[in-house]
Give the backbone structure.
Amino acid sequence: MTSSNWIKIALAIITGIALGVIYGWVIDPIEYIDVTPNILRADYRADYVLMVAEAHQSEQDSETSARHLAILGSESPAQIVTSTLEYAAHNGFTQNEILLLQGLLTAMQTYQPQGNNSP
Amino acid sequence: MRLNPRRTILHIILALLTGLLMGLAYSWFISPVTYIDASPAILRADFKDQYRSVIAASYATTHDLPRARARLELLGDTDPTGELSAQAQRMLASGTSLAIVQPLAQLATDLRQGTVSIPVTSTSFIAVVNTPTLEIPFANITAQIDVTESIQPTLPSTSLSFEQTPLAPQQLFTSTPRPTATLIRRVDAPFTRTEQETVCNPDLQPGLLQFILLDSRRRQVAGIEIIVTWSEGEDRFFTGFKPELGNGYADFVMQADTTYSARVAESGAFISDILIPTCTDANGTIYLGGLAFTFQQ
């Protein structure tokens, strides 16, 4: 086989790889189902935290609120609310919503998880 | 050695296909697309359940039905209301406390009705409301409702209106109960039995004991506890968990040869000596029927 043929074959392989990657990444990428909430888009994530804040307003149950927030990732509940507050400040959340988030932040900053301290 | 052109083309095609397979393997298995901006619609089922619970808990505070509906739509359920009801029933069956389940049922009910209703709960909320409005008849219920509805607009301006107790949430003392157009149901108004019907329908489950609870305006009421007792046990359940059959609907399946009593927990309306009735179909065959009780405030 001549070297020009080898070059053609190599080019064909490279072309094939490029087409395969384009197909697999762009045209028909793997569709995820059953994902975890830690990869929610920022606005969904912020709205979720806002819902927790709204519920917390009447329930005043820090344990439940912290548990709801925990599904958003490994950060502490207070950190999650803090980052949401930053998002809220830059994305047109109303003053009331920011107040609710601040209330939740205060609760999460003082929240102590109930551990088993028995000997 | 020289290959003929056909063979060369064949090699090129094979190389192209090999490359294509390698590219697909890389993009699907070795380094697939990583999701970083997922929508709630693709959450795992248990996380969707939690998402719904938070939506319902939020709604219980805000009573913002359009927003709750919009949030539920994010989950991509074909029947959001049905999913809420199903989740409520699953949670009840798994022993989750009613306090957690009730907001889900309430939201499902409100979505079906299209109106905001006031949840019928006896929460600790009332105990910490310490305002002069407690002297008004049924003011405890009014305060419970209005605090949640009016916190946001009144919080800044009325923060000095009432004496605050450090242990209690601030907003409970800072919002002024105000008149509301929303129906407020008197939770202490007794329910009395208004109808009793033997249900002879072979398509229904034998021994089905059905309850329908209506308020004074004959609208069905969700969230009313019913207690059914028999010699060996007791069962407690609530209206509204099968909204497809009515918001004030609840049912229980009786066993043959067992005598039951039923009571509406809130008011003590009591029916004793309940037995499965027998029915006869067109062919003269006897089968077990059911009973339907209607209670009204």
User: Anything to note?
Assistant: The CA atoms of residues 205 and 253 of chain B lie 8 Å apart. Chain B touches chain A through 55 residues (CB under 8 Å). Helices of chain B lie at 5-30, 45-62, 65-73, 80-93, 98-113, 125-128, 139-154, 170-174. Strands of chain B lie at 192-199, 208-214, 225-230, 233-238, 249-253, 260-264, 270-274, 278-280, 286-288, 290-296.
